[in-house]
């Protein structure tokens, strides 16, 4: 493994490393974490092409721009806030987390301290009593904007105006507050109903020189520093000439496609989540990008439609969720015969499965580059560029 840039900070010890389910390898030095991830990616992917050295962070702490905290009552009847213990719904109290934006953690502590005077109790899933279930905070790394989402077990939020007023007095840096109602027995954080209590209901941020709007439910990469590294690397591997029509599959709020739009003729984005597509269309407008078109659909169904229309596609950028892509998607892709594919994956296991499938359809991996988007955890992101064999 080549030497990566050394962390600027010495190792910081986490006091709840043995109990919290958020990180799995925080007890290792950053060098050891990177070596572990490199070994895992090598094991799964080196049969497709040489795996290049993992790109690590200079400072692997406090990187997360999205945090969610759960609230509960401890045995002494005190309200606690923190993360679930791995594999359970037991809340481990945490005020400051080594991988989370520190401004976001401070806001959560303030909210917890306010609960008593507002007579708000944590929501209890089994008895369906209490009110506050989770707090989600999203921070704009470049913009400094902050969104607070209060996830309640009921839409009835007494003294909501005074609560928001008191929160904003303590944290004037908050730019929007959204109420989300989740009264289901579920491990999903957010429910279906939403109401904007303060501000615009979304925040803005800048990535690779483009501005993006994010709603509470839209996917947005959680590590803004490494996302710029990831996207720049992925687009460099694609070596566009400016004449290509490309597909940005699983496009989220349109980040990769909009950043690629300056380098190609046309981008067609597809995404399942309706809120994310709305954000993506808005993001194209706010950046005055006119050569990008977004569609809300299952990516596999959409690829099939494009293949049936025999529309020319020169390259496919794909960034599916952890479960990976589908046979339907890959089959349709093979029918379209794009010259190149750039696959960004957050799960090397499903990536290996899909690369095998792409290889059977004639797509050969050329370069494989792991990027550490999630220090402290087992997770690793990987970019693979593939070309169609003639
Ligand atoms: C890993 S995220 C990538 C998003 C985006 N490319 C980015 O970098 O921010 C995966 C995205 O795939 C979307 N998704 C999940 N299943 C999908 C499907 N069957 N068809 C289309 N999009 C899907 C999710 O909503 C999510 O936005």
Structural overview:
28% of the residues lie in helices and 25% in strands. By secondary structure, the chain is an alpha/beta fold. It folds into two domains: 30-59 and 223-388, Rossmann fold, CATH 3.40.50.150; 66-206, OB fold (Dihydrolipoamide Acetyltransferase, E2P), CATH 2.40.50. Strand 2 (79-84) and strand 3 form a beta hairpin. Helix 1 runs parallel beside helix 9 (348-360) and helix 7 (299-308) runs parallel beside helix 8 (327-336). It binds S-adenosylmethionine. The site of S-adenosylmethionine has 19 residues, from helix 5 and strand 11.
Keywords:
390 residues, seven-stranded mixed β-sheet, binds S-adenosylmethionine, 9 helices, Rossmann fold, OB fold (Dihydrolipoamide Acetyltransferase, E2P), alpha/beta, single chain
How are the SSEs ordered, and which strands pair?
Elements: H1 30-45, E1 66-73, E2 79-84, E3 91-93, H2 102-115, E4 132-139, E5 146-152, H3 160-170, E6 176-181, E7 193-198, E8 203-207, E9 210-214, H4 224-238, E10 245-249, H5 255-260, E11 266-271, H6 274-286, E12 292-296, H7 299-308, E13 315-318, H8 327-336, E14 340-345, H9 348-360, E15 363-371, E16 381-388
The structure holds S-adenosylmethionine.
The site of S-adenosylmethionine (SAM) has 19 residues, from α5 and β11.
